[in-house]
């Protein structure tokens, strides 16, 4: 691969890399016929992002002929190439990216003002293809807004907030902080913003729904969208199925796929089989792990669950409002404990987020078991401190 | 500046008296060489030279000419002492080192000779603080024998362009490699870090290059940890001269303008890390 980025596009590329660094530790780079794809996934595989820069984005673009080539590298190293983001626009005139497969070297050459030439030779590893399986066209709800609207909305949430809940109903959209396991009730604070449909460029709600996802990645995308001034589309369905945030332009396409908190009551029964019923004492962990019966029960009941339209509002009333917080808070605290206990012993079966549905892990499931089978639950994506390495 | 009469009574005993209307003219330049506690002071009628060393591989000198001081009286040919630089800087900035225009701290620095403490009178807004810092036996600074006749390569750059490079340098690299050559790549800074290597090339005809005098290709490596303190001097400076001699020793000279637009110099000498075959 050999390509040249000039002028303002250098900053777009740099911003994209900084956005991706909010997702995962590794950058997956795949030069294709249709452009250069930069991807990242978080260690728990609950968040995935892909930037596809079309050949027109570049002043010159040649993709490798012959077999496909893919590689990955530490995203920090690539970030270091574009370290001074603020001065980038003023100093860098041209960026030349060259991939030398034989030498296993990715070279970024920045042609700067005053003739200064910065060359970064980065080593990389070969990698599998990283592709999230998602279909945003099948989502029943689509919102599109200018980045400013979402930036202003997100601004009201504290920086430490991990998850945000997005609810749609009729002509309104609500954003509220997802109440975590706040041990002290008095400290719990609910922030809620209500946006009217006419604030959005596009507002198509097929089914009222309420989804909870991580704010960190959304913030990452917002930084990018704001700097490019491109509108953000949000495609989503019911809780538990991924939300797709996308930014498209004639020369680039960005998709952030984030897992949403799956909190239909059936699944929660399965997740916390005994904790939910016996609220007070935390159960021993080994009991949690081999409770297959309740797992099966959960599968059955999930089949019997009503249509999503019916499920969503019920959840809202049962678990979202601050007045009915105690069960939620307890449940959350306990599931946190589970997480800590189980991380050592087993691949995590009972976690709050469903993973994204990567081609490799997603079997061609039948209609009926769809929901539960898909729920290859993995660690929550909510922070970068996950200890797992999480390679594909 | 009105100081207590008591100090003036004994002033006759001082071998060195130096006063400044704005203490920042001294403190800023001392900050540029603060990487070890002990600083060797050497005063001559020409001014003050302050030396800090590390591991016998790195030496930094700050020169503050006599003209910078409003008063500079020295009764001997040369006066030497050693003090703890961190303590001295704490004293010099005892009023908070305010950067508000018009508010300056005045300094009167007196030294009574061998065995006596260094006495500082600092005054700001009518408040006077007297600090006495114990002096130590002055050590002999290392002579790096860096002499201009042995200089093989020399470039003078505007600091702005080097600041950018130094702020971005890959600190996971143990060494900074400097290549100077009459042909390409002319002047190159290289790092070899965990993620790969990086090169910064400055062409000899760049606007940032004020002087380019390279007679032969030289590639030398210097420990990043040793060079890191020099970024403090770089940050203050407006021009920097990079020189290497035939042994590969590095001299970095920084031209620093103080608040009153007067010129001072800071100089760093650094030993090469190892011999590198020319590639």
Tell me what you see in this structure:
The complex is a heterodimer of chains A (392) and B (279). Chain A is α+β, with helices and mostly antiparallel strands and 392 residues long. Chain A folds into 3 domains: 2-126, Proliferating Cell Nuclear Antigen (Box); 136-258, Proliferating Cell Nuclear Antigen (Box); 265-357, no CATH class. Chain A is built from 11 helices and 19 strands. Chain A has a 10-stranded antiparallel beta sheet with strand order 10-6-2-3-4-19-18-17-11-15. A 5-stranded antiparallel beta sheet of chain A has the order 5-1-7-8-9. In chain A, strands 14-13-12-16 form a 4-stranded antiparallel beta sheet. The two termini of chain A are 23 Å apart. Mean pLDDT of chain A is 73; it is low at 265-351 and 357-392. Chain B has a 9-stranded antiparallel beta sheet with strand order 6-2-3-4-18-17-16-10-14. Chain B has a 5-stranded antiparallel beta sheet with strand order 5-1-7-8-9, with helices on one face. Chain B has a 4-stranded antiparallel beta sheet with strand order 13-12-11-15. Chain B is built from 6 helices and 18 strands. Chain B has 2 domains: 5-133, Proliferating Cell Nuclear Antigen (Box), CATH 3.70.10; 148-270, Proliferating Cell Nuclear Antigen (Box). In chain B, 15% of the residues lie in helices and 44% in strands. Chain B is an alpha+beta fold. In chain B, a hairpin with a 4-residue loop joins strand 16 (237-245) and strand 17. Strand 9 (117-123) of chain A pairs antiparallel with strand 13 (196-202) of chain B, so a sheet runs across the interface.
